[in-house]
Amino acid sequence: MVFAAPNDALSRAEGVLATDPTPLTASVAHQVIGIWQRDWGDMRLALDHLRRARDLAARADSAEREADVLATLGVALVHAGRTRQGLTAFERGIERGTGHTRARVLYRRAYSWWVLGHHPQALEDVRRAIPVLRQADDVIWTARALTLRATVHLALGAVERADADFTAAEALWDTTGQEHDKADAVESRGLAAFRSGDVPAALRLLDEAEERYAKLGTPTFMLNIRRCEVLMAAGLAPEALAEADAAIAVLDGIGGQSTRKAELLLAAARAARLAGDPGTAIARAAVAVRLFAGQRRTWWEAHAQLVLIDARVAAGRGSGRLVADTVKVAERLSSFGAPAAPEAWLLAGRIALGLNWSADAERYLEVAARSRRSGPPLARMTGWAAQALWARATGSDRGVLEACRRGLAVLDDHRTTLGASELRARATAQGAELAALAQQVSLERGGPRRLLEWSERWRATALSTPPTRPPADPALLSGLTAFRVIAARAEEARMDGRPVPALEREQRRLEREIRSRTLHIRGHAPGHGGRFDAGRLLDRLGDGRLVELAVLDGRVQVLLCGGGRVRRFTGGLLAEAEREAEYVQSALRRLAHPGGEARLPLAETAGRRLEELLLGEAAGRLGTGPVVVVPPARLHRVPWALLPSLRERVVSVSPSASAWLRARDTEPPPGGRQVLVRGPGLATGGAEVPEVAGRYGRPTVLEQADAHGNRVLRELDGAALAHIAAHGTFRADSPMFSALRMADGPLIVHDFERLARSPYRIILSSCDTARLASVGADELLGLVTALLPLGTAGVVASSAPVNDAAVVPLMLALHKGLSDGAGLAEALRDARAALPGDALHQATGWAFTAFGAA
Fold first, then answer.
1. Do residue 447 and residue 479 come from a single domain?
2. What is the CB-side half-sphere exposure of residue 632 using CA atoms within 13 A?
3. Pairing state of beta strands 674-678 and 627-630?
4. In the chain, is it the N or the C terminus that has fewer CB atoms within a 10 Å radius of its CB?
5. SS3 564
6. Domain span at residue 45?
């Protein structure tokens, strides 16, 4: 029962011991308690009960019983880090047992070999066990053995063999009532999906396994480890680190398995390294190395050493000694047949390149590059990165660009399997090095046009296709509705001064549920779009200019497109520009309130400095036509209208030149339907809405009780123009939950992604609606970027707090321009000029930006 109904089995075993049982019966009861404590409780208690079970079996003079207990004890000793004692227990168990019992002992030793990282020994023991278990018609233990063999195959990268064993095991599990084993089988299939490159399926299966474990009331440390691995591959390293650290705390609290703690520490170290925290990675990896060494787990120790070295290099500790250490780890991983071996060879090559050890670097990179032809996508990416660096070291610019092209194509294919826009955006981080290498070679050898092409190759790619949604997901829809209700109730309670902990807990639970369901969605976008055509861009610009800002080695490179050519100018340091942009945001925040007039000259001075840093000499060569700015993701909050050379111009912003071209080609929907929405709680009550309504024929106006989330979404779908006056909130911790406040609660980004077609033009007249989170290589997440792939060709929104009263005349002037036939960017330019000249109104105009090309 212990793997069918664990807590019931524990209670039954304790009940048996209270009845003064025979030694044989007592041995079984103590073994059950020992298994429960070993897997879900205190290892000290587990070892105590299992030793008593062994002694009682000897007293009962039952060699088969003693062999079975010795096998259970051997697993516990290995998990406690007492590897030599555990292997001795297995040897004694194999000697004492015969036939069917010996096969079960062999299975458990195979499991321990897997825990220790001795995969050939594990395969040999399970090979000997399976035929005997099958002959005995032992369905449960045969299914366990098949599941274990599949898991070992996965560790060795043999995904097809693993799939065959998982399928056979699953058919057997369906005939049993072993609920814990069934949950473990689902978890294992999640691991298999991940190894084959299907991240959404892996997340879905791991979540399903967690639900099954929760019903049994048992901790899930192995599941935590596996989910950390998947989260890291999905670009969610901070979440993986938090999950690993939380699991370690629980494990320490119950005195659990030393082996699992070491594996969790390794997961935490990897996550910290990917999250850009090498100090934490070094601390976690160093402890993991010591634990693995003490447990005699050389396979695992080598993986932990790789992470430790990588983190030390990231902390700036490159040296000849580290090269030697990395090569030693790479050789050990290669001898184990570990899929991580190419990563180690690539790291050795990188360190050697940093030391100018060209011959050594070329040798190591050549070995790493062999992984580019086969295996899961991220392994092939490692191989292509090594090939690109090797070509760079040998002076082959063409080789660098070809390797970068091939590697990014692999990642493109991988991203099309991801349905959630968040995962697609975060996954681009895997290609950042290849994109940077290609841009560097283009800067040095290829000229401005080639640099533009490579800048576009990896800019805002997550926006090239809309997020994938299932035709109907009732659970997701009900979750979104429930979230809106709970969030509204929590906000109401806060305003009334009432306690809200219970509501906030439920809100967080619903957020987790919504996010999980969206991350499970598998993509089906065919291919990865057409190749960027610089000539087509130049033709479409007409007398306008497009300014694309690329960042190489921390410095801004200004690519000025227009007049039939692409020119390059050098800007300032990105870090300095980011500081100035933050200063401007602070000034605009202060100017949004009466009494902040003294900040106006400071804001204007900062605008001039920003222009020098971001445009350089290009500022004087913008011509007289409209200007499109394509900034890097980290500069998305720059109020471009504040820059002197752009202040009187028609200026719009786009995440990429490709996105601007798509927006230019987007046709407005037939019918020209307008939708005006007025949410609750605005200081002016959305005073512009009634006047704007009078400017159009018969617009749909939703306000007060009519402005309910689902009704608003229905009306927005396919509209030609939408104006939403509603409080906006930006969630830096979870940008997909950034929201607009409606009568029944917040409309979040996930809601807008359900639209079949978002409005052709949309105006968001409240604070912070254009705030976005920079993720991945050069991607943005937030409300504006959610709308652009769904049919919206133009958005006007603010990237800073604004004064509600000052917004009203700006919006009225903006709609006047639109109704007179102007586009969004032109109407916004004219609306700024029509405002009063005081600091409050000027700052309000600067805070709003036109995005896209409508």
1. no
2. 24
3. unpaired
4. N
5. coil
6. 1-97
